[in-house]
Structure formats: C-alpha cells, structure tokens
C-alpha cells in the first residue's frame, strides 16, 4: 500500500500551467495503476470551476515552498521541483488540454499556407 504524501484538507502549493505556484487545498486523492497519485485541488482565491486533478509531481508542501523562497528570494524565478512528467502523465495532460488537436490544426494551417501548390495557386493561375 502506497503512503499518501499529502492529506485531504492540507494546504499545499501547486504549480499551475503558466509556472506560478499557487496556495491550494487538497480535496480528494486517488492512486493510479503506475503507483503515482493524483490530487483534486482547489486554488485558494480562485473560482471553484478551476479546481482540477493534478499529479503529485506538481505539488509541494508549504514548508518546502517557504524554504525555497527563503533560499532564492521571492523575486527570482526558480523551479522547486526538477521532476519530469512521465509519458503517461504527458499524454493525459495533452489530452486534457487538447494539445494534440491544436497542434494538428496549426500544422494543417501552416501546410496549407506554404504547401507545394501554393506557388501555382498564389500566382493567379
């Protein structure tokens, strides 16, 4: 049985998509098949509709955050965790945030604009 690193109701810092660390509260917890854990969190001061499931690699304790802030200062940009997402985590992240769909649309638009036939079409033939 895996031991939960964080408890439900605990205040932690969560790294948001933009890279900011936001004080959050853990609402739920679930163990994944690969042994990792996901936590359903609420960002303090944000609308509840922004609550989301996040992997444990994006969460740090308030103590760890404050220690790093003292070391590096609050004005400097730093990365507390240097853990990388696993392939499964990246796939799920991309799926949730529709990265693949957006990427395929961009590739199509670029290809249609700079395709091999545009030189013929673009010259009014």
TrEMBL record:
InterPro entries: Chromo-like_dom_sf, Tudor-knot
GO molecular function annotation: transferase activity
Residue ranges of domain Tudor-knot in the record: 6-59
Transmembrane residue ranges: none
SUPFAM superfamilies: Chromo domain-like
Keywords for the protein's UniProt record, in alphabetical order: Transferase
Identification of the protein by name: Histone acetyltransferase KAT8 (Trinotate prediction)
Organism encoding this protein: Henneguya salminicola
